[in-house]
């Protein structure tokens, strides 16, 4: 009788350990799958952020060019409608001066916008790298081969 109880106790203990190990393996697999899914979602979100930034920068560039074109046209119109300028040579000289001044200002504005855009892109890339590093650090225990289950 004693051996029968001992045998059943051993079988029960073995079955419980196997069940615990299987539950642990299933949970580990589930967590690994969740991390893979989260990784894909993170990549998609970062890609979308990059695209949104590119669209915003493109729109800002377009707005700047439109504003510059409008200013240039307004300045040209103002010179052409100026009643104080009697001679064509004087009008041409003023147009040339105005165009040179506007060109210099417009180039500076575009350069400033390009630097601002580059800074934004670098900040976004840095933030994405930090997010990826943190994600990889959090996911590493579930993807490394040295991961061991906690024993009871």
UniProtKB/TrEMBL annotation:
Keywords recorded for this protein, A-Z: Coiled coil
Bias type Basic and acidic residues, positions: 127-140
Gene3D superfamilies hit by this protein: Phospholipase C beta, distal C-terminal domain
Coiled coil: 42-70
Keyword flag Coiled coil: yes
Keyword Aminoacyl-tRNA synthetase attributed: no
Domain of life of the source: Eukaryota
Disordered, as annotated region: 127-152
InterPro entries reported in the protein's UniProt record: PLC-beta_C_sf
The protein's name: Flagellar FliJ protein
Originating species: Onchocerca ochengi (Filarial nematode worm)
